[in-house]
Specification:
alpha+beta; four-stranded antiparallel beta sheet; 2 helices; membrane; transmembrane; transmembrane helix; Pilin-like
Length: 129
Amino acid sequence: MKQRQAGFTLIELMIVVTIIGILAAVVFPAYQEHVRSARRTAAMGCLMERTHFMERFYSANMTYVGAAPPACPGEVTQFYNIADPANLTATTYTLAANPIGAQAGDRCGNLSVNETGNRQAAGGANCWQ
């Protein structure tokens, strides 16, 4: 009697490797976009927190001048440069977050919000939704 050896053939192994390669090619870019989206959402949250601070300061002082919004957490500042309020006058301001490092290739680009609540993104209107 002849015993048969169990195992995989080279063809079967190559098919499995090819399937894994195709799945990785599809899944990895989607994963990267999801990570960028999560970082963008954190930056938007930080901008909105700073906006709320500016509005509370204005309510108490009737001016935006002198307001020092809180710093963003490290997980945001690691991927976004959060600028000090720009165009700061007694009645106006603009807060901005500019992507840096691994986030620099984000489709939304620079994010900003002003005293009227007007939210803008370099990548278009869908970025703040």
